[in-house]
Design goal:
Layout lengths: L6 E4 L3 H12 L4 E4 L11 E4 L2 E7 L4 E2 L5 H10 L3 E3 L5 E6 L2 E3 L8 H15 L20 H5 L6 H15 L9 H9 L6 H5 L2 E3 L4 H10 L3 E3 L4 E6 L4 E5 L4 E4 L2 E3 L10 E3 L4 H8 L6 E2 L2 E5 L5 E5 L5 E7 L5 E8 L10 H11 L4 E6 L21 H8 L6 E3 L13 H20 L1
Parallel strand pairs: 1-2, 1-14, 2-10, 7-18, 11-15, 14-22
Antiparallel strand pairs: 3-4, 5-9, 6-9, 7-8, 11-12, 12-13, 16-20, 17-20, 17-21, 18-19, 19-20
Bound molecules: flavin-adenine dinucleotide (FAD).
Amino acid sequence: MNGPYDAVVVGAGFAGITAARDLVDRGRSVVILEAGPRIGGRTYARPFAGREDLMAELGGSWVNRDLQPGIRREIQRYGIALAEDVAPGSAAFITDGVLRSFPVPGSEIGDLERIVGHLRDASKRIAPSQRLSSQPIRDLDVSVDEFIAPLDLGPATRDLLYATIAWYTGADPREASMLSFIAQTAGFGHSPYGFASALTERFVGGAGTLLDSMVDQSRLEIRLHHHVARIEQTAAGVTVRTRDGQSVEARSCVVAAPTNVLRHIDFSPGLSDEKRNFLAANHQGRAYKPSMVVRNVPPRPFALGMGALQAICLGHEFADGSSLLKGFGGEGAAKLDPTNREQVEAAVREYYPDAEVLAVDAHDWNTDPLFDGTHRIDRPGQAYDFLRAMNEPEDRVVFAGTDVDDSVWRTWMEGAVNSGYRAADGVSVILGR
Ligand SMILES: Cc1cc2nc3c(=O)[nH]c(=O)nc-3n(C[C@H](O)[C@H](O)[C@H](O)COP(=O)(O)OP(=O)(O)OC[C@H]3O[C@@H](n4cnc5c(N)ncnc54)[C@H](O)[C@@H]3O)c2cc1C
């Protein structure tokens, strides 16, 4: 059927599927249009290229049930199995151009203490249970250099902070607004390094196990290979048209595609000027995450610093002494082809000089036209107003997705789920008018 549905949802990631599932649970008729050949969007697990006995998690993987209420609720509802990571052991840091086993030299321990305190104090101004754009925190929407200016930090401490922000954002750390980073610090128990220590649980079989359960149990109708090109609204409803000329009629629409690709959808009538201005330029989040099979590294490695990869975490240790590691870098901090074994090996050797990378696998989210980047990272001065603007509906159309999630969990899977809940509530209001 091509409608009229109560709602049409654009994008079958966590946000779109959560919104559709909630609406179907409320007795609404819903169809999801997904441009790609699979569901899951920026969560993507598949056999490791060249090592099909392993699974590569190429997008979102880590969650925390204690801190993330939406993920906790969904996992409990569907009885999804999670596995706990082992704690890191052999740490390596590159700060101020030096490879170290402690992040900063002894002379900067006081600086380290001050930046951690400064971040924690800023995060305590944010209430994790409330919408970010409703809180008086616009002054935190600044660059890292503006944020740390009063502290006069030493070079190693500054590099440690830059590396942490680059790890989280995949951006040049000096070009990213601090608001999201400080907000997530609030989410992770007001702990600046909370995301490193608290994100220790992963879905057994990948995040798709949860999404598949949501789709199957609520019998969601999903049409793959339906690339939405135009969304038209009239007083009576919404017509969503795909690139290849198909159309679906509905009384409302949830747009849950990544914000970097929204400028390729033709909205009629056009979006508000504010939304259009924000969406005209790419955001800064251009991360890469190579999965790699490595040997000759110390037990349970963890690396952080201003190398070609800004972080390396353990995925799994094998009986033969090799390890599955995840690297994190971003185009903004250093150029690297995450699918090139030699380049990835050189990057790992900056931290672990004897390392041998046997195989590497990655998805290039930045050149994939359905994403054109990773999670949304705003420029300084744009994060706060972007959230406020994007969470305003356009008559019968509401926006969802982790990129627009107006909570401390923005950018994470929790943010996508949260925005899905909110979108379903927004659509319910529209349908009840
Ligand atoms: C490398 C990487 C690592 C990450 N690590 C973590 C982590 O460890 N933990 C965590 O919680 N989060 C992590 N994240 C973030 C997490 O994956 C995302 O927050 C979440 O998956 C986003 O879900 P979403 O529904 O908002 O968007 P998406 O999953 O991107 O879904 C949007 C969908 O819209 C589709 N689409 C695009 N254009 C169109 C169109 N025109 N018509 C129809 N459909 C369209 C896309 O194909 C996509 O399927 C990571 C992300 C990346 C990229």
